[in-house]
Amino acid sequence: MNENVPVVSPAASPVAPPLPKEGFIRLSPLNRRRLQNFKANRRGYWSFWIFTILFVLSLFAELLANDKPILASYKGELLYPAFVDYPEEKFGGFLAQTDYRDPVIAKEIRENGWMLWAPVRFSYNTHNLDLPVPAPAPPTWMLTDEQCRPIAERNGGTGCNDIEWNWLGTDDQGRDVVARLIYGFRISVLFGLILAGISSVIGILAGAVQGYYGGWIDLVAQRFIEIWTAIPSLYLLIIISSIITPSFFVLLGILLLFSWVSLVGVVRAEFLRARNFEYVRAARALGLSNATIMFKHLLPNAMVATLTFMPFIINGSITTLTSLDFLGFGLPPGSPSLGELLAQGKANLQAPWLGLAGFFVIALMLSLLIFIGEAVRDAFDPRKTFR
Amino acid sequence: MTEPLLSVQDLSVAFRQGERDTLAVDRISFDIMPGETVALVGESGSGKSVSALSVLKLLPYPSAHHPSGRILFKGQDLMGLSENEMRRVRGNDITMVFQEPMTSLNPLHTIDRQIGEILKLHRGLSEKDARARTLELLHLVGIRDAESRLTAYPHQLSGGQRQRVMIAMALANEPDLFIADEPTTALDVTVQAQILKLLAELKSKLGMSMLFITHDLGIVRKIADRVCVMLDGKIVEHGPTAEVFDNPRHAYTQRLLAAEPKGRANPLPADAPTIVEAGPIKVWFPIKRGFFQRTVGHVKAVDGVSLSVRRGETVGVVGESGSGKTTLGLAILRLVQSEGPIVFLGNRIDGLRAREIRPMRKNLQVVFQDPYGSLSPRMSIAEIVEEGLLVQDKGLNYRQRRDVVAKALHDVGLDPATMDRYPHEFSGGQRQRIAIARAMALEPQFIMLDEPTSALDMSVQAQIVELLRDLQKRRDLAYMFISHDLKVVRALANHVIVMQNGKVVEEGPAESIFAAPRTEYTQALFAAAFNLEADGAATVRQ
């Protein structure tokens, strides 16, 4: 409280102060303080940047790990193989889609132009046919020149430095683990964010309506939720995935059916508590509509509780997808998925790089998200805000 | 001169917040003689409660600490005692009663158990002896039917009874020093008078000393032998009560004493048109029982009350808590469901749907009691004040709305340049001004004021009353003024309605009611409010 806010004498004429300066982004003092609080949490702030960089990079996974060149020039024509499918006829082959890794095609293009490859020349579904050892192959740097020689000699080399490298080895179908991790990270994070986002929106709306109106709406909806949450979602998923092969969006939809309830309770409680606040009553007396009151006055109250749960909801969504994949009820076979990688690690204990790689990526991703969530929650904590 | 029972010497209290220390109490000294009552008086934030809590070392240590000072109790320095030794002093030699009787008792324990616990703890009494002593204490603090009350839970008691139980708990071990931290602030005036009377009786009967903390000078004059006036953590004046009251030396004390709401209502022209004509209004809340939720009865919050307010008039509605005065106000604003006609500016509004009534809210505004709760902490002052304009005056653009806000803030005596700040940067009185500005921005004709001064300090109350009267004069506003504070009502109302249990007990022009109240209830209410006297008739509700 500040007693020094001047009280003007009635003689002065009322003049509105100049409009607040329009900056790049206009932040209210409250949000500015929140941003400061967020930055003050070093761990969360660093996690945020690391995660952002990883996520943005993985969004461009096609440019990082691809079995097609990003750019190619063939007989003076500029081609975009990573984005456009060219039939192999173009290069003298016979397949409907060009296999740029085929030595014959590669040679043909190189002789008539050039190719710009991604750093990793495998996509998530590329089978490395030139493995020096049977799949799952360990990371190339773990192999001896002895083992590499047969493959290397095909290209006129002698040791492991002359063959294509699998930095983290391959899985049991000869697919590069690095490529699968990059794509798997992307699909996991996207799935988590979309699922958490949509289920939060639905959950907040449902909780808001129940808490604000109370009475019969609340009673009926609460009973419905109780019955609904009693449905064992995992069984349902197993049954559904035995009938259809669930795609990304089918899985998202099914999980959404059950995940939206997680926020209803907290939001409902906040609205129940806050709907009798005097400023809400004052807003009603001003003639504001219910929707405006809910959005403007009550939702900000519920946001703190919501944000507290958010990191756990995102992580929960990611782990749900991972565990479904691990059990084999998740994304369709062949999809890059961290859970499937873990399952392979379990099936191939002689190939520890599979399980370890999957474990470290999942652990890193979940930890970063929790740290970020923690920092966001602290930033929105009203007790920390006004220090 | 005898040795003082408690001697506070050079005491300071500081709170550590992050890196900074905030000094809440700054080198205060006072003595309490055996059998004496000393009052600490001051407005909110003056450090009076913190001083009292530090005597019992109940502050949130270690974030609170004492840069200087000694607290001598019977010659022993309490500062040096360990937590274990301190625990023996608390509840035994020094006891305390807090402000809020609703939350000071554990809702899950019976009265018997709560009082008995202290006896067993400090005295080692057996179950049976503790019960006998508890009963004795309940008789002592004047709880009727003490035997049947032993097994009662706190929620089964009224506020006054709970405060009596708290006092019984504090007296259980016959303390030498009794600290009362605003023990009557949360109570109705008639109950307050009873509790004060009880405390005075008990003090003389048991011969204990009392440290009384309050913001209410009327109580001090009634009960204290000596008084210390606190301002910003310092004692600015102290002395015998009569001396301080008759001859205040410090400017702040003089201001405090002069701060009572003064003046009378604006005179009302005889031909003023009627703005609101309501009633008889009924607000009955059904009591539902059983599996099928059959309605077995009703809580008659408002039971057939009529009221009319003319332009430029203030109708004061007074009554104790639970008398239905706020419900009546909300019913007239159509914020709770009610039965009975409400005519506003010639239109019946009682049958209208929420959507239909929305445009009328422009003329029908409200200011609530709690200036801390009625402003959203997440919106700037400009956003709060302009909110009604967004709905009611959609033609205005951003710049025009800011001008209206500036004018409204100026009208309530605030600097328009502060409009982009947030509510937490303002004091209670300033916040209440903002709440009034929010109502005024719409230029309404009728404003329902629901205890707008109750949460404020005395000196600020007077300012708000002045402001309201001034605004009424300039804009010919009609007020419905709800309050339990009769002094404020006397300063503002033309017409007074006294309510009890949802019904009108007495009504009439303010002057005649205040000069000669006719019903027994009103007389008791006035005696309690103006003289802090609890006469036989005053035991209206216990």
Descriptive account of the structure:
The complex is a heterodimer of chains A (387) and B (542). Chain A is mostly helical and 387 residues long. In chain A, 60% of the residues lie in helices and 3% in strands. Chain A contains 15 helices and three strands. A three-stranded antiparallel β-sheet of chain A has the order 2-1-3. In chain A, strand 1 and strand 2 form a beta hairpin. In chain A, helix 11 crosses helix 12. The longest helix of chain A is centred in the last third of the chain and has 38 residues. Chain A is elongated, with a radius of gyration of 28 Å. With 542 residues, chain B is of the alpha/beta class. Chain B has two domains: 252 residues, Rossmann fold, CATH 3.40.50; 264 residues, P-loop containing nucleotide triphosphate hydrolases (Rossmann fold, 3-Layer(aba) Sandwich), CATH 3.40.50.300. A six-stranded mixed β-sheet of chain B has the order 7-8-9-3-10-11, sandwiched between helices. Chain B is globular, with a radius of gyration of 25 Å.
CATH topology value of the largest domain in chain B = Rossmann fold
Helical stretch tally of chain A: 15
Which oligomeric state applies?
heterodimer
Major beta sheet summary of chain A = 3 strands, antiparallel
The CATH architecture assignment of the largest domain in chain A turns out to be Orthogonal Bundle
Strand order of the largest sheet of chain A: 2-1-3
N to C succession of SSEs of chain A: HHHEEHEHHHHHHHHHHH
Strand content of chain A: under 5%
Total separate domains of chain B: 2
Look at the helices and sheets of chain A and give the structural class. mainly alpha
Class inferred from helices and paired strands of chain B:
alpha/beta
